[in-house]
Design a protein that fits this description.
Layout (H helix, E strand, L loop, with lengths): L1 E7 L4 H16 L5 E7 L11 E2 H9 L3 H14 L9 E2 L3 H12 L3 H13 L8 H10 L4 H8 L5 H13 L7 E4 L3 E4 L4 H14 L4
Parallel strand pairs: 1-2
Antiparallel strand pairs: 1-5, 3-4, 5-6
Helix pairs in contact: 1-9, 4-5, 4-8, 5-6, 6-7
Length: 209
């Protein structure tokens, strides 16, 4: 198997688009060699715990270009057949990344990431909200009661921040970033065709049974 580490933040539109592209490549190559692990990266580490209004956030970040930025994102999504309906709240994703950390211990990371992306980008839900996160965890097969209890604590908050800082120290400053076999980094929402080529090259180079 080949390790594929993905550094991501579920509120990043390019992370959603990048995952859709990757998923389509994986579906077309059911014998793909990838073992996927998701890693935390907060685009907005100083976001207040309660989050903020999305429109205000976009204007603060992009200024007069905010509408153009959103338009480009929507057009790229539409080209994949996706209709974005993002949350009106831009959340602090620290708790979402804590949930992803726990999901990793239970082999439920990809299911939880899908739930986070769907909730934020399609269902206009606040993934900074503990009840929303607990529901996503339960849908992925995790224990809802335990998840709610952990979210009410500070459990693994420092671990999430440590892992994010480690990524930044490695020179990662944007997401999504994909790292293949801990050696080759690919950044941005790459098309499915690129991933199909990568998979085909890895499979061709692998010893045949």
């Amino acid at each position: 198997m080949t390790r594929l580490d993905i550094i991501t933040d579920p509120v990043c539109p390019w992370c959603l688009i990048g995952k859709v592209e990757l998923d389509r490549a994986l579906e077309s190559r059911p014998d793909h060699p990838f073992t996927i692990t998701w890693h935390p990266f907060r685009l907005n580490p100083t976001m207040p715990p309660e989050g903020m209004d999305r429109v205000a956030y976009l204007r603060a970040k992009f200024g007069d270009q905010a509408e153009d930025v959103v338009k480009v994102q929507a057009e790229r999504a539409a080209a994949l057949g996706l209709t974005l309906n993002p949350s009106p709240r831009q959340p602090d994703t620290t708790d979402a990344h804590r949930l992803m950390h726990w999901a990793g211990l239970e082999g439920a990371q990809t299911a939880v990431m899908s739930g986070l992306l769907n909730a934020h980008w399609y269902d206009a839900e606040d993934i900074g909200n503990a009840e929303t996160l607990t529901r996503i965890a339960e849908a992925a097969g995790m224990d809802a009661t335990l998840t709610a209890r952990l979210l009410a604590s500070d459990a693994d908050r420092d671990e999430v921040i440590r892992r994010e800082q480690h990524a930044r120290q490695r020179g990662i400053n944007s997401v999504p970033t994909f790292i293949i076999s801990d050696a080759h980094a690919v950044s941005g929402a790459q098309p499915a065709a690129l991933w199909q080529n990568v998979i085909d090259e890895i499979m061709a180079a692998s010893p045949q049974p």
